Amino acid sequence: MNTESRLHNLFPTAAEIPEQYRLGAPIEQREYLVDGALRRWEGPLAAVRSPIHLKTDKGDEQVVLGSTPLLDAEAALTALDAAIKAYDNGQGRWPSLPVAERIQHVETFLARMREQREAVVKLLMWEIGKNLKDSEKEF
Fold it and tell me: What is the pLDDT of residues 98-129, one digit of tens each?
């Protein structure tokens, strides 16, 4: 067995991944947030790839997790302008909220994130190659 064959055999097939850790279809993220509203991007997308490779009939293939908007300069500058306007030199809505209200918003966000724990842990495993235990700790 040559080196290439030995390396190829190091990778699992998709069927060898335990069911509870398998991913669904790749996520195509076309929305992005600007000025408190989601906008749809119809332009090019950037592939999000896992460092994990799977053995296939064609050889080993890097797992594609999904894609994200590859915004152009105009969209990026629009987002930047909205952020500058929202901050308003420290006088915008968020920076001027009382601390108790900001804490409440963060706690609401955390509660909603906890609802997504299983999905986030699985994505950490696939996105950066962490094992289950470390991914759970990171969450």
Answer: 999 999 999 999 999 999 999 999 999 999 99
Of 125, 136, 137, 133, the C-alpha closest to 51 is: 125
CA gap 27, 127 in Å, rounded: 13
Q: How far, in Å, CA of 49 to CA of 67, rounded?
A: 8
Handedness of CA 33, 105, 116, 130 (dihedral sign): positive
Smallest Cα–Cα separation from 7: which of 69, 70, 53?
53
The rounded distance, in Å, linking the Cα atoms of 17 and 125 is 12
pTM of full prediction above 0.85: no
Convert the pLDDT of each residue in 61-112 to its tens digit.
999 999 999 999 999 999 999 999 999 999 999 999 999 999 999 999 999 9
